[in-house]
TrEMBL record:
It comes from Rufibacter radiotolerans. This is Rhodanese domain protein. It comes from the Bacteria. Residues 15-103 form the Rhodanese domain.
């Protein structure tokens, strides 16, 4: 599975590389801590897929990386996306490794 570490993601964000961030957590989780991008809960992903950009590198985000891995597989296998990365360890790893102001839950 193609992955990106929190530190690699931070470097790419700092360089202002074009990235599509898709967070597949629930709104309550998003409210605790988020990296921006677009909130599309995993259950809503099938109906939101047509509006996603297949060309822009896309980073999928969840709490620990499991739901985002499911989203990645869905987008790859069902919709032919090829430019996807799973945030390794999810927002939890981001909070521990990159941004200590991000709440851990």
């Amino acid at each position: 599975m193609p992955e990106i570490t929190p530190l690699q993601l931070k470097e790419r964000l700092d360089r202002q590389e074009p990235l599509q961030l898709i967070d597949v957590r629930e709104p309550e989780e998003w409210a605790i801590c988020n990296l921006g991008g677009e909130l599309i809960p995993l259950d809503d992903l099938p109906k939101a897929t047509p509006r996603l950009d297949k060309e822009t590198p896309t980073v999928l985000i969840c709490h620990h990386g499991f739901r985002s891995a499911q989203a990645l597989m869905f987008l790859q296998q069902r919709h032919g996306f090829t430019n996807l990365l799973n945030l390794k360890g999810g927002i939890h790893a981001w909070a521990l490794e990159v941004d200590p102001t991000c709440a851990v839950y």
